[in-house]
């Protein structure tokens, strides 16, 4: 009898560990008070900062655009871009875990807070377009993280996911490249196959991370030429304005 009791207790402990501890853990630091603890909200989501309307970068709340966009070096085809958090530390680990360690379901843990935030930042749209992934890359990874994020938004907000855009050029890593080089690399990378889904619509264009805005811009370009009315870029994370003095962050 005692053995059965001990066994049950052990099973209950394992079940709790599997179901509850994980749910309560912060997705960015692994400590308590999930899905996002107050410390990570402060460190990564920066509610005190604004977002550059042009590229989504985190900037001083008093500004509308970052220095790059003010200098005309930002995306031009989007009506607005916004990003939830700063791409650093726990946020970077989270995104990389989703992308490279086959953990797309992690995104569901942040579905609610991310969607709640997004709907307050952007005008409502007719649907969502996920930045597409090339078929070869998709076959390697098994999923497109931008689609996974779009599914979370669809689930929480009821926005439809609009098909129609494809990536036809497998672009190599853009990380070491300048914005100009990235734009050049992305020329002809995307194509709209079914404009009937997109014409006259307003869309949220969703990706995991934006740095220079080059990828969003390249997709936005083909969306515009297919008659999309308004394009609002939405990403999980973006960079932080370099000139932001430490007291402002
Ligand atoms: Zn945390
Ligand atoms: Zn900007």
Blueprint (SSEs and pairs):
Blueprint: H1 2-24, H2 38-45, E1 50-51, E2 58-59, H3 67-70, E3 80-86, H4 89-100, H5 106-109, H6 111-121, E4 127-130, H7 135-141, H8 145-157, E5 160-161, E6 165-167, H9 179-186, E7 190-192, E8 202-210, H10 214-225, E9 230-238
Helix pairs in contact: 6-8, 9-10
The chain binds zinc ion (ZN) (2 copies).
Residues 52, 54-55, 57, 65-66, 68-69, 74 line the site of one zinc ion.
How does this structure look, described?
This protein is of the alpha/beta class and 249 residues long. The protein has a single domain (50-248), classed as Rossmann fold (3-Layer(aba) Sandwich), CATH 3.40.50. The chain has helices at 2-24, 38-45, 67-70, 89-100, 106-109, 111-121, 135-141, 145-157, 179-186, 214-225, and strands at residues 50-51, 58-59, 80-86, 127-130, 160-161, 165-167, 190-192, 202-210, 230-238. The strands form three sheets. Strands 3-9-8-4-5 form a five-stranded parallel β-sheet, with helices on both faces. It has a two-stranded antiparallel ribbon with strand order 1-2. Strands 6-7 form a two-stranded antiparallel sheet. Helix 6 (111-121) crosses helix 8 and helix 9 packs across helix 10. The mean pLDDT is 90. It binds zinc ion (2 copies).
């Amino acid at each position: 009898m005692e053995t059965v009791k001990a066994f049950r207790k052990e099973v209950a402990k394992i079940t709790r560990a599997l179901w509850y501890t994980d749910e309560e853990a912060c997705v960015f630091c692994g400590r308590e008070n999930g899905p996002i603890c107050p410390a990570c909200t402060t460190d990564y989501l920066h509610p005190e900062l604004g977002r550059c309307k042009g590229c989504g970068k985190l900037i001083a709340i008093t500004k509308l655009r970052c220095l790059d966009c003010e200098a005309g070096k930002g995306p031009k085809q989007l009506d607005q871009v916004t990003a939830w958090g700063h791409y650093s530390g726990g946020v970077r680990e989270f995104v990389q875990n989703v992308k490279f360690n086959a953990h797309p379901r992690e995104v569901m843990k942040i579905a609610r807070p991310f969607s709640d935030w997004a709907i307050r930042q952007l005008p409502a749209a007719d649907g969502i377009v996920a930045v597409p992934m090339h078929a070869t890359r998709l076959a390697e990874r098994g999923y497109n993280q931008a689609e996974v994020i779009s599914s979370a938004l669809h689930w929480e907000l009821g926005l439809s996911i609009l098909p129609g855009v494809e990536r036809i050029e497998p672009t190599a890593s853009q990380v070491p490249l300048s914005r100009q080089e990235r734009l050049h690399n992305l020329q002809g990378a995307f194509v709209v196959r079914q404009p009937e889904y997109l014409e006259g619509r307003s869309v949220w264009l969703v990706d995991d991370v934006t740095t220079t805005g080059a990828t969003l811009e390249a997709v936005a370009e083909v969306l515009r030429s297919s008659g999309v009315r308004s394009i609002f870029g939405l990403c999980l994370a973006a960079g932080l304005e370099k000139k932001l003095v430490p007291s402002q962050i």
